[in-house]
Amino acid sequence: MTCHSRLPTAIVLGLALFSASGTVRAAAPATPSNSTVQASVPEAKSADAAPALPPLTLNEAVARALDQNFSLTIQRLATTSAKESVIIADAGFDPTLTASTNKTRSQTSILGETVPNSLRDTTNTSVGISELISTGANVGAGTTFDRSKAGTGGLNPAYNGSFSLTVRQPLLQGAGSAVTYAARERARLGVKLANSSLKDSVLSVVRSVESAYYNLAFSREQLGVLEFARDVAQKLLKENQDRLAIGVSTQLDVLQSDVALKNAELGLIQARQTVRDREDALLVLISRSGLDQPVGPVVLGDEPVPEVSVARSYALARESQPSLNAARLAIDQTRLELVTAKNNLLPSLDVSGAVALSSTEASYDRAATESLTGHGYDWQLGLTLTLPWGMRAAQASYRQARNTLTSDETNLQQIDLNLLASVRSAVRAVETDRESVATASLARNLSQQQYEQEKARYDAGLSTVRLVNDSNNDLNNAKIAEL
Q1: What is the rounded distance in angstroms from the CA atom of residue 65 to the CA atom of residue 24?
Q2: Which one of 165, 208, 260, 413 is at 20 to 30 Å from 363 when CA atoms are compared?
Q3: CA proximity to 63, closest of 33, 5, 34, 20
């Protein structure tokens, strides 16, 4: 929800970062129009302002923050890592190629004597490929070539070639695409969660920059008010010193004027410190180059605050609030965990099968060609049942997943309720503050008139220095309240 017309521009800058693969598209600095007011201290009055520097607009400050803010850089890396997790999960469905070769040689000896014709020389080479498919089955194909040389008899050496196909399909636990693709879907939801966290960080940085920007604008304007109050106190002290010289004032009046000046100068020192602190607070958000950079004049527009309503603002908040979206994604992830945990309650029952064509020949090339004729073959079919006694671990994991889902759904309801409360409070704040601004403006006008009347009474000898100082303090406070 926005409470002024500048926030959407800043959010657009943030979402430009969010949708541009980590690259910030910084908006061009907005040129102050004739309707804008410069919130920096006038050149003639403050040494803290830097008139030679170009103005720093709010949009420019937000763009710099999105480009250089430390927390956003860290969050972008987290988003990149989440994308890598999807690649890792997808890689589980990539074909796997295996190849091996080995050579063995053996000779038998009995009672220290070599057994005649016991020398055996064997070479084995195999190549295969396997892949996990959507049903949860693992299918593979391979070929094997053996060369064996024995002491005597038959083909020597003998060459054996074979081609085989294998499959192992779960029938209960681990069966089906929902379970097979669960890890990949969790990784993809993780990317959405990371993007939601990045959006949340972007909006947080935008809000922090706006707050720091407005605080700096206020502190500089406040410094201007206090400099004016110091000038008034100096003028009043000079008047009382002149009046004392001609005998129409007292030493007490001069002393009171001097104390008022000292208080005004102390307030000025504290205000300058506040300006520097708030410049640092803004630089921490928008720069990595340290805190010694000067901050140019800050420029605030005078666009009117738009009308707001609870219904519209709440609808916008529910649509775009990152924390609410993250809670929904967490529920989706937990549901995937629940599907997997429920499937793990089933026994493991796998059916496996294999078929191979083979032939033993006098050479490698004949072994390769003759094995495909089908004269020599092998096949097998198997069924494997695995059932942990009591299934206690699987049942406990299922209960945990179910409790986590209930917890996540409760958390979503809580976030939604808190969001509604925040929206209602914010809308009330806009309505209240709009009236507060009008009231503060009237109070400042009243204090201005009261000060002028009290000063005129003092000039006519009908008031005291203390009353004039009190009236001046009231005016200063009213100006600051209006800011």
Answers
A1: 10
A2: 165
A3: 20
Distance CA 93, CA 108 (A): 47
Task: Please answer whether residues 458 and 468 qualify as being in contact, where contact means their C-beta atoms are separated by less than 8 angstroms.
Answer: yes
Six-digit token pair at 391?
């299934």
156-170, 209-223, 283-297: segment of lowest average pLDDT: 283-297
Exposure string for 318-333, b = 16+ CB within 10 A, e = fewer: eeebbebbbbebbbeb
Describe the crossing of helices 182-245 and 7-18 by its angle, rounded to 10 degrees.
140
pTM as predicted: 0.69
3-class DSSP assignment, residue 214: helix
Residue 157: cis peptide before it, omega within 30 degrees of 0? yes
pLDDT at residue 291 tops 70: yes
State pLDDT tens for residues 55-74.
Answer: 888 888 999 888 888 888 88
Cβ-contact 258, 237 below 8 angstroms: yes
Which pLDDT value is given to residue 154? 64
Single-letter amino acid, residue 352: S
| 3-class SS of residue 166 | strand
CA 464 to chain centre: 61
What value, to the nearest 5°, has the Cα angle with vertex 272 and ends 271 and 275?
90
Spell out the residues 6+ positions from residue 266 whose beta carbon is closer than 8 angstroms to its own.
none
By the 8 A CB rule, do 31 and 37 touch?
no
Q: Which of 121, 99, 117 is nearest to 108 (CA)?
A: 117
| Spatial contact of 394 and 344, defined as CB atoms under 8 Å apart | yes
Cα–Cα distances in angstroms (integers) from residue 25 to residues 7, 20, 64, 72, 208, in the given order: 17, 8, 10, 14, 19
Phi first, then psi, for residue 91 (nearest 5°) are -65, -20
Please tell me the distance from the alpha carbon of residue 418 to that of residue 373, in angstroms, as a whole number: 74
Number of C-beta neighbours around residue 10 at 10 A? 26
Nearest-5° Cα angle at 48, 47 to 54: 110
From the CA atom positions of the chain, what is the Rg in Å? 41
Q: How big is the CA angle at 402 (ends 399 and 408), to the nearest 5 degrees?
A: 140
Which is nearest to 157 in space by CA: 366, 356, 373?
366
Distance of alpha carbon 158 from alpha carbon 374, whole angstroms = 19
Question: Tokens in use for 2?
Answer: 């926005």
* 98-151: pLDDT as tens digits: 999 999 988 888 877 887 877 788 889 999 999 999 999 999 999 998 888 876
